[in-house]
Amino acid sequence: LRVAVLASGRGSNLQALIDAQRAGTLPIEFVLVASDKVHAHALRRAEAVGIPTLALAPKSAPTRAAYDAELFARIAVADPQLIVLAGFMRIIDPAVLEPWAGRIVNIHPSLLPKYPGLHTHRRAIDAGDALHGATVHYVTAELDGGPPIARAEIPIHAGDTPEILAERLLAEEHRLLVAVVALIAAGRIALDGTRVRLDGTAL
Ligand code: GRF
Questions:
Q1: Which ranges carry the Formyl transferase N-terminal domain (predicted)?
Q2: 13 Cα nearest atom in ligand 1
Q3: Domain limits of the chain?
């Protein structure tokens, strides 16, 4: 499976995919790692293992829409079958997303539909939730609102801070993302409701 990853920061979820792929447990090929942040550590992680990278700063384009169009045109050239958003901290223009429907997924650190957007760990603690987690979902025009694919759950303990909770969840995110990409690579996950494979054929 040809995979492109978009990441804005640290890139630990990208690293989990790289590690699984290199261990031989995830049959994918990284065709591109792209970032909106020129100094994103994710780009260094990709370079370290010879994955092609693209650093494209938003201010290189006159408008948000022009930026998204440029970014996704460059991604299209790499010809991925799947795009993974792994800590990509931008809202993407629905017009450029549309052709990728069912072929672009995001990992979000909450049990969606709870807590779309930012500060999910603090919000879960402040709400007194007993459970927290992460969701991998298809990306649609609605922020963190596309059909969920899979979730990982963890308990929230008394005394948890957002930082402690985030760190505990991160290990589960890595497992979750690798598992979902493996299922997609195996052709075993369909776009919610429509039952199509990534190549568009019926399941
Ligand atoms: C993760 O918590 C992910 O769920 C969220 O941003 C964070 C990215 O971490 N969307 P990393 O860059 O993969 O280390």
A1: 2-181
A2: 13
A3: 2-185
Kindly indicate whether the ipTM for this predicted assembly is greater than 0.85, answering yes or no: yes
- pLDDT category at 190 given cuts 50, 70, 90 is low
Q: Which is it for strands 53-55 and 29-35: parallel, antiparallel or unpaired?
A: parallel
On the question of pLDDT at 53 being above 50, the answer is yes
Residue 156 labeled ligand binder: no
Q: What is the pLDDT of residue 165?
A: 98
CA distance 70 to 132: 36
* Correct CATH for 2-185 of 3.30.980.10, 3.30.450.40, 3.90.330.10, 3.40.50.170: 3.40.50.170
Paired with 153 in beta bridges are 133
What does pTM read for this prediction? 0.94
Contact predicate 40/11, CB 8 Å: yes
Q: Which amino acid is at 79?
A: D
Nearest CA to ligand 1 atom 10: 87
Task: Supply 166's token pair.
Answer: 């985030």
**Residue positions annotated with a catalytic role:** 108
Over 90: is that where the pLDDT of 188 sits?
no
How far is the C-alpha of 62 from the C-alpha of 65, rounded, in Å? 8
